[in-house]
Each structure stands twice: as structure tokens, then as C-alpha cells.
Amino acid sequence: MKKLSARKDIQNTQSLGQLLQVFFLSIELDEYKTILQKYGITEFKGDQWYPTKLILEVFEEIEKRYNSIQNLVSIGLKVTEAIDFRSRFPTFDSFMAAFPQMEHEMHRNNPGDFEVTRIGPKSIEIVDRTVWPHDLEYGVLYGICRLYQDQHDYLVERTEIVVDPQTGDEVGIYQITWS
To answer: Is 4 a residue whose pLDDT tops 80?
Structure first.
């Protein structure tokens, strides 16, 4: 499990409210609404920035629940509904080329990153060195593929989790293939 809020390098990191609105879009909201209330979260304003540490504490609480995978994936799926990526990136390839930079647009002073590498004519590998839970990121990637489903049929797989020797935190490795 990722360290999430325990990481020392996130103290000054902030997340954009527009992205955080996904908490309230998820079909699983009733499952974790009490956690949001515990932290005093009733809404996220799209143009405001929020402490990433707070958001990671919420994710840690969600991860403790028996249905955490379902909750986190459902939150990740809603990212492409909260933000209109399609008008900015009309193709899957254009989106994935910009994906690493978008992590830094959505999160200020962000120590994490994504590395996207084409590993075949119809496949890419995404290395996730962010602070976010793996199941959340799986949902984000699956949601991206659904957004571009008119272009290809996609398969998203988390292929490996390794430990980063520099941070001691987990790194998720994903593969997306298409036909």
C-alpha cells in the first residue's frame, strides 16, 4: 500500500478543486460520504486549491473499508466527467502524450509523476510515481479509455507494483493495449 499522507514531500502540495469534484460524482458516494463529513468536506470549488495531504487522508480512510477497491475505482472513473479532456485532446494518443504534464497542472508543488512509454504498435506502459492510491489510478486510466472508446477497444491492466528505492513508496506499472 502506498504511504499516501505519510510522505514528507507532499507538505506543500495542493490539488485543484475541479479535479476533486469527482468525490461527489462517484456512484459510490454514499459509501464514503461519512468520511468526507469527518474531514469537513461538503464541496470542492473548481477554481480553488486544496491541501493534497487532506485528500490523501480521506483516501487512507477509504482504503480501510472492505469495499475500498470499488470506491476508489469509481472515483477515478469520474475524472473524465469532471474535466473536459476531449475538447483539449481529441485523440487517445494526444491525451497520453500530455498525461504526465496534466498531473502537474492538477496538483501544485507535486513530487509525483507519470511516465508514458510506447512499448508496441498498439500498447503503452504507464509508470505511476504519484502519491495517489493504485485503485484510484486504475479507475482514472479506465475512464480515459472509456472516453476514447470510439477510437479503439482498450484493455487496462496493472501489471506490477514495485518499491521505489529513493522514496520507499510503491510505484504502479500499468499497460494499456488496444485493437
So the answer is: no
Q: What DSSP element (H or E) covers 53?
A: helix 52-63
Beta strand 154-163 with 114-120 is unpaired
Whether residue 85 contacts residue 99, with contact meaning beta carbons closer than 8 Å, is answered with no
Q: Is pLDDT at 139 greater than 90 in this prediction?
A: yes
Taking the complete model, does pTM exceed 0.70, yes or no?
A: yes
DSSP 78-100: THHHHS-HHHH--SHHHHHHHHH
Could you give the C-alpha distances from 87 to 3, 83, 148, in angstroms and in order? Answer: 35, 10, 12
Q: Looking at domain 4-178, what is its CATH homologous superfamily?
A: H-NOX domain (3.90.1520.10)
> What does the domain layout of the chain look like in residue ranges?
4-178
